[in-house]
Write a structure and sequence with these properties.
Helix content is about 25%, strand content about 30%. With about 170 residues, it is of the alpha+beta class. A seven-stranded mixed β-sheet has the order 5-4-6-3-2-1-7. A hairpin with a 2-residue loop joins strand 1 and strand 2.
Length: about 170
């Protein structure tokens, strides 16, 4: 009896340790199961002031660790005028990867001043780091080829209330 109690206590302790290292319920479980995270579309459009004029996008905003970790994983399609804006608390060197992401993407890195510091390509399912030399505060993921087709370039000003709060109105 004492031995079986000891084994039961050991099993409970082991289960507690395992649960401490498991994602929280409703957390990243969807990403592990292969289901895309769909966030609500922000009511304010994101605009990019390019040499050829203003480009507008509807966006989802990923602004916490759980949302930023999942991003566009498992998405198989996205409209040309849609994207996901990743918001970080501080400006720093950022690195992304394309694990579990079947769509090729343009990753638009944006500084705290609201200006594009780099546009890099994301290859489907790649775990290679996608990291510009310049620090960034925001990253906008768009369907691959969108930046080139619409004339989006380094130095262009990106506007959205979440970006303008950091960058100012200028």
């Amino acid at each position: 009896m004492v031995r079986s109690f000891g084994l039961a206590a050991l099993a409970l302790a082991f289960a507690a340790v395992l649960s401490a290292f498991s994602p929280p319920a409703g957390g990243l479980a969807f990403a592990q199961q292969g289901e895309p995270m769909i966030l609500p579309v922000d009511p304010a459009p994101l605009t990019i002031e390019t040499a050829g004029g203003e480009r507008r996008f509807s966006i989802e905003i990923a602004d916490d660790d759980r949302e930023r970790s999942a991003g566009l994983m498992f998405r198989t399609e996205m409209r040309d005028d849609h994207g996901m804006l990743f918001v970080f608390e501080q400006t720093r060197r950022l690195a992304f990867w394309m694990k579990n992401t079947p769509m090729p993407l343009d990753l638009v890195f944006i500084g705290a001043d609201g200006r594009i510091v780099a546009i890099l390509k994301g290859e489907p399912f790649s775990i290679a780091p996608i990291a510009p030399e310049a620090p960034a505060r925001f990253v906008l993921e768009l369907k691959a080829g969108t930046a080139e087709k619409t004339g989006i370039a380094d130095g262009d000003r990106v506007r959205h209330p979440r970006i303008d709060r950091v960058a100012g109105a200028g």
